[in-house]
């Protein structure tokens, strides 16, 4: 199934039915009085999060969703029937925004969570309610209210604890294959990964976390280079970012320059995402001679002038992956159980000031 993480739809709730102006007419009852019933309620439209759905592809082709109107009231005290509501089932993690106002209506982050998208109109009142001692033959009634109409933007943001960040072919897909049950496509050409992949990493019998692999980010993504910033939204819910760096880039580019370029693109996209805890992971260490590895790591750290956690791994051979997984599990456990918001993040961030070359 094709992965779709964005969709634009229009929702139209049903109108309420009109009230009735009617009088009782029966033999031997010449003055039966008013008996007009109320109109029925129009159908509303709801969004429901469903963990069994993982894409918005259904809404790419079905863009208009309209509920039925309520029935009009009738004589003999007959009230109009209300229309059924419509439920739109969306993946867990869907954010729904009103296109015209820009207001975020809901963020469906848990299974079975519901949100009202468009409310159906209330039914009108029949003349039965207008009778009184001085108004015995009321002819007043009210029309049903119109239902709400909205143009909405649906945006899927995957739910993951850890997000992988880096240039194309830095080894993100290989790493997620090495540490989790995910099996994304792996190849030696840029932008092999074209949509996010999720994998569950089992650390122990009762310890696990979810890791997300998104398409690579390149310098100039803010201007639309490569795949742009379109997939960075999927990292917004993560607690930790792993910035994968190729120790020996095939184009002979500078790894430190690549780190700074990705950090700059992240900041252009979202300052909040840029401030998330971010670790450096030096990948493809198996391509570096053993006696040169320590010097390479020291040189990269010296030039970046950062205390951010740095791990050295080889996703292809599995070297260092177990240690990385244990460190991530410990960090997530500490953050959820002990750290309050904003504390403990200083040493785990790689800010622009920390990524400048030494003089």
Structural topology:
Layout: E1 6-12, E2 45-50, H1 57-61, E3 64-66, E4 86-91, E5 94-98, E6 104-108, E7 114-118, E8 149-156, E9 162-166, H2 172-179, E10 197-204, E11 207-213, E12 240-246, H3 255-269, H4 271-274, E13 278-283, H5 290-304, E14 310-312, H6 321-337
Parallel strand pairs: 1-3, 2-4, 9-11, 9-12, 12-13, 13-14
Antiparallel strand pairs: 1-8, 2-7, 5-6, 5-8, 10-11
How would you describe what is shown here?
The chain is of the alpha/beta class. It folds into two domains: 6-156, Spo0b-associated Gtp-binding Protein, Chain: A (Distorted Sandwich); 162-355, P-loop containing nucleotide triphosphate hydrolases (Rossmann fold, 3-Layer(aba) Sandwich). The chain is built from six helices and 14 strands. The protein has helices spanning 57-61, 172-179, 255-269, 271-274, 290-304, 321-337; strands at residues 6-12, 45-50, 64-66, 86-91, 94-98, 104-108, 114-118, 149-156, 162-166, 197-204, 207-213, 240-246, 278-283, 310-312. A six-stranded mixed beta sheet has the order 10-11-9-12-13-14, sandwiched between helices. Strands 3-1-8-5-6 form a five-stranded mixed beta sheet. Residues 338-359 have low confidence and may be disordered.
């Amino acid at each position: 199934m094709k992965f779709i993480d964005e969709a634009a739809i229009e929702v139209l709730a049903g109108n309420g039915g009109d009230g009735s102006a009617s009088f009782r007419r029966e033999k031997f009852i010449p003055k039966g009085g008013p008996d007009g019933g109320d109109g029925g309620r129009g159908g509303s439209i709801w969004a429901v999060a469903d963990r069994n759905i993982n894409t918005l592809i259904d809404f790419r082709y079905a863009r208009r969703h309209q509920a039925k109107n309520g029935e009009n009231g009738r004589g003999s005290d007959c009230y109009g029937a209300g229309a059924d509501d419509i439920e739109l089932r969306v993946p867990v993690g869907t954010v729904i925004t009103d296109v015209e106002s820009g207001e975020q209506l809901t963020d469906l982050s848990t299974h079975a969570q519901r949100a009202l998208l468009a409310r159906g109109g209330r039914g009108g009142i029949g003349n039965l309610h207008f009778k009184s001692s001085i108004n015995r033959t009321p002819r007043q009634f009210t029309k049903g209210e119109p239902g709400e109409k909205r143009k909405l933007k649906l945006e899927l943001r995957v739910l993951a604890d850890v997000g992988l960040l880096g240039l194309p072919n830095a080894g993100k897909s290989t790493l997620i294959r090495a540490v989790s049950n995910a099996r994304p496509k792996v190849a030696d050409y840029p932008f092999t990964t074209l949509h996010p992949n999720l994998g569950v990493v089992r650390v122990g019998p009762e310890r696990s976390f979810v890791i997300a692999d998104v398409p690579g980010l390149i310098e100039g993504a803010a201007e639309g280079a490569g795949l742009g910033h379109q997939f960075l939204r999927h990292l917004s819910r993560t607690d930790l970012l792993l910035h994968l760096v190729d120790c020996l880039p095939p184009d002979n580019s500078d790894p430190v320059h690549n780190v700074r370029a990705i950090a700059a693109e992240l900041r252009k996209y979202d300052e909040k995402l840029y401030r998330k805890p971010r670790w450096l992971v030096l990948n493809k260490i198996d391509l570096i001679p053993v006696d040169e590895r320590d010097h390479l790591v020291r040189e990269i750290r010296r030039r970046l002038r950062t205390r951010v956690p740095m791990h050295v791994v080889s996703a292809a051979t599995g070297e260092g992956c177990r240690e990385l997984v244990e460190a991530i599990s410990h960090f997530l456990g500490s953050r959820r159980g002990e750290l309050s918001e904003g504390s403990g993040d200083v040493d785990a961030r790689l800010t622009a000031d920390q990524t400048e070359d030494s003089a």
